[in-house]
Design goal:
The strands form 3 sheets. Strands 1, 3, 4, 5, 8, 9 and 10 form a 7-stranded mixed β-sheet that branches. Strands 2-7-6 form a 3-stranded antiparallel β-sheet. It has a two-stranded antiparallel sheet with strand order 11-12. The radius of gyration is 29 Å and the shape is elongated. Strand 3 and strand 4 form a beta hairpin. The chain has a domain at 21-131: Immunoglobulin-like, CATH 2.60.40.10. Helix content is 37%, strand content 29%. The protein is α+β, with helices and mostly antiparallel strands. Helix 1 runs antiparallel to helix 3 (132-182).
Length: 190
């Protein structure tokens, strides 16, 4: 049981909860997103319309590398920041940053970029929330995955406890049978 408790603690400590960061910008603005992980080499990606991650680029020392020329025209990488140039409605999505280590990637907090106050031709403005459902589903999916993992570990812990109790009961029964065999009662005639 001590081993299982240790494993449970390591899993819970190792699965650091990420905080969703909301950033709002207006069309035509440049908006800078800041990674919560401070590292000399960061990888940035974004969620596309199919809810898959697409790499934007990486920062390495002072020279950023972009994964395509189109991305270099739209984004600017520097330090822990990703600047989205000339914000448009299509830029409203989830953005992710990470650093890579020998033990695997270390993710920064996900960033939801929302575009607001679109000025219409008649002079009125409209509030847009892009992407609402995608971010909501991603947040809840991560929650349910963590909950499922915790419930699985609790179930395993209870299973181990049940196994240990049964094993102790079996050992006690075996001991009692051994004692009865070594010390037969007076009721039996030989």
């Amino acid at each position: 049981m001590d081993l299982l408790g240790t494993v449970l603690l390591l899993v819970l400590v190792g699965s650091r909860a990420q905080n969703l960061v909301d950033v709002t910008g207006e069309p035509g603005q440049d908006v800078t997103l800041t990674c919560s992980v401070n590292h000399a080499e960061l990888y940035w990606s974004m969620e596309d319309q199919n809810q898959t991650r697409t790499g934007i680029g990486r920062t390495a020392s002072s020279v950023p590398t972009y994964f395509s020329p189109d991305l270099e025209a739209k984004y600017s990488l520097s330090g822990v920041g990703l600047t989205v140039r000339n914000l448009s409605v299509d830029d409203g999505r989830m953005y992710f940053c990470e650093k890579r280590e020998d033990g695997g990637p270390v993710y920064g907090d996900p960033i939801r970029l929302m575009v607001s106050d679109v000025l219409l031709s008649n002079g009125s403005s409209v509030q847009l929330d892009v992407p609402i459902m995608s971010a909501y589903v991603n947040e809840n999916l991560a929650y349910w995955k963590r909950l499922s993992l915790i419930l699985s570990l609790v179930s395993a812990l209870l299973g181990c406890c049940g196994y240990c109790c049964r094993k102790k009961e079996d050992e006690a029964a075996d001991q009692q049978m051994e004692n009865e065999r070594m010390n037969p009662s007076d009721d039996c005639e030989l």
